[in-house]
Design goal:
The protein contains 8 helices and 10 strands. It has 258 residues and is of the alpha/beta class. The chain folds into 2 domains: 4-131, Rossmann fold, CATH 3.40.50.20; 135-255, 3-Layer(aba) Sandwich (Cytidine Deaminase, domain 2), CATH 3.40.140. It is globular. The model is unreliable at 228-258 (pLDDT under 50).
Length: 258
C-alpha cells in the first residue's frame, strides 16, 4: 500500500479526525482544503496542504498527481452553491457536471470518483480509516425508544428511503407521524435544526423528534463526503436527542428523558 495518501476536505469535524487517523497509521497526508475552515483545521496537522475551490478540478488533480498520490479519501461537506456559479467551474469540473446530468448528490459523487480514478487515483472509503465511527445496528444511548417513537422511526425510515431514491436528500425529521423537515441543499445539520424549530413553534417542545436517515439505492455511502458521523451527530446534539437506532444505512434518533 502506498505511504502517501490524499485527503480532499470540506467543512465539518471529520477532516481533522481523518487526518489524525491517517497519520496514526504511518501515512503521509497530502491534503486539499476546499474551504477556509478545512484549511484552518488541517494546517496544524499536515505539512503538505493546498487550498482550492471545489470547482478547480484541474488544479486539484494536477496537484495530487504531482505529489504522487495514488489513493485518496473525500470527506466533509461541500456546498452545492458553486454549481450555480458556472464561472467558478473549470473545464474538468464542467465535464464532470455534464456527465452527472443533474445536481443530485449520488450522481455528482459517482462522477467525481470516476474522474479521480480515470487519472489513476483510487478513492478509498472513509470507514477504512475510521471504523470506530461506523455504528452497528441497535440502540446506542441510555434508553430504548417508546412504542410511539418506534412507530415514528419506522415511518421515518420508509419516508427517508423514498426521499433518497428520488435524489432529494437522505434525512427527514418526523414527530408523531408528521414529517417536519426534508433535507434539501442545506444539508443534515440545518435540516435537523429546522425540524426542531418547527416542533418548538408547534408547541411540542424541542425534544421528541425522531430523525430518519436513508440511503438512495446505488448511493456510494461509504465514500459520501458528508456523513452522518459529522454533520448528523452535531445536529442531533443541537436538537437534544439521546437515543439512536442504527440499522444498516439509516438512523432513527429519539429524545432523552431526565
Amino acid at each position: 500500500m502506498p505511504d502517501c495518501i490524499g485527503l480532499v476536505a470540506g467543512e465539518g469535524e471529520l477532516p481533522p479526525i481523518l487526518a489524525r487517523a491517517m497519520l496514526g497509521r504511518g501515512r503521509e497526508v497530502v491534503a486539499i482544503a476546499l474551504c477556509e475552515q478545512a484549511h484552518a483545521r488541517l494546517n496544524p496537522l499536515v505539512q503538505r496542504l493546498y487550498s482550492f475551490g471545489a470547482g478547480q478540478g484541474n488544479r486539484i488533480i494536477d496537484t495530487l498527481k504531482r505529489e504522487g498520490v495514488r489513493e485518496l479519501v473525500i470527506i466533509g461537506k461541500v456546498s452545492k452553491e458553486v454549481l450555480f456559479r458556472r464561472w467558478r467551474l473549470d473545464s474538468r469540473a464542467l465535464r464532470v457536471l455534464r456527465r452527472a446530468g443533474s445536481f443530485r448528490d449520488d450522481a455528482l459523487l459517482r462522477e467525481v470518483i470516476r474522474e479521480f480514478e480515470s487519472e489513476g487515483i483510487r478513492v478509498v472509503e472513509q470507514s477504512h480509516f475510521l471504523p470506530e465511527l461506523c455504528p452497528k445496528g441497535g440502540v446506542l444511548t441510555h434508553r430504548r425508544p417508546t412504542r410511539r417513537e418506534w412507530r415514528d422511526i419506522a415511518y421515518g425510515f420508509s419516508a427517508a428511503r423514498g426521499v433518497g431514491a428520488l435524489g432529494i436528500g437522505q434525512t427527514i425529521v418526523v414527530k408523531r407521524g408528521t414529517v417536519l423537515a426534508v433535507e434539501g441543499m442545506e444539508g443534515t445539520d440545518e435540516t435537523i435544526a429546522r425540524g426542531c424549530r418547527l416542533a418548538q413553534e408547534g408547541g411540542g417542545g424541542g425534544q421528541g423528534e425522531p430523525t430518519g436517515t436513508g440511503s438512495a439505492p446505488g448511493h456510494a455511502h461509504g465514500r459520501d463526503p458528508d456523513t452522518g458521523g459529522d454533520a448528523g451527530g452535531q445536529g442531533h446534539r443541537a436538537g437534544d436527542r439521546s437515543g439512536e437506532d442504527t440499522g444498516g444505512r439509516w438512523r432513527g434518533v429519539c429524545p432523552g428523558r431526565g
